[in-house]
Amino acid sequence: MKTLIKPLMLALSLLPLSALGCEMPEMSEYDTVSCLVDDLAKVAKNNKWGFAHKNGKQIIPIQYDDVLDFKEGLVGVSQNGKWGYIDKTGKVVIPIQYDFAFNFL
Questions:
Q1: Taking the complete model, does pTM exceed 0.70, yes or no?
Q2: pLDDT tens sequence across 3-60
Q3: What is the Cα–Cα distance from 66 to 86, expressed in whole angstroms?
Q4: Of the four listed, 7, 19, 22, 86, which is most buried by Cβ atoms within 10 Å?
Q5: Secondary structure E strands in 3-105
């Protein structure tokens, strides 16, 4: 019985990693690149964030202090300590004037 527990625990611990299915694009021009979501990756350079297409083309300029994840076509972005939401083209949909922002469920 003990011999089955270790392999089972190892397999279960690796399950969450495979369930994520994170596709990491090759984009060496950025300091940080996140997993692709709907063909977009969060990218950072010099502690500022934006979004790039999976082909590497910058879609939303790297100008934000922080960004959340896209949900329902919107993403929370922070500038100068305030939060708002933009769409996938970078257009501000909810003004960047709030103290907090959260991902949509």
A1: yes
A2: 656 555 545 554 454 455 788 888 899 999 999 988 999 999 999 999 999 998 999 9
A3: 13
A4: 86
A5: 32-33, 40-45, 48-53, 58-64, 66-67, 74-79, 82-87, 92-98
Which positions ≥6 away from 71 have C-beta within 8 Å? 103, 104, 105
Q: What is the pLDDT of residue 17?
A: 45
Query: Which domains can be identified in the chain, with CATH numbers?
Result: 23-98 (2.40.10)
- For tokens 């879609």, what's the residue? 59
Closest C-alpha among 57, 62, 24 to residue 43: 62
Residues 20/35, Cβ–Cβ less than 8 Å: yes
Q: Is 91 left (phi over 0), alpha (psi -120 to 50) or beta?
A: beta
Residue 17, H or E segment: helix 2-20
- Contact between residue 62 and residue 79 where contact means Cβ atoms under 8 Å apart: no
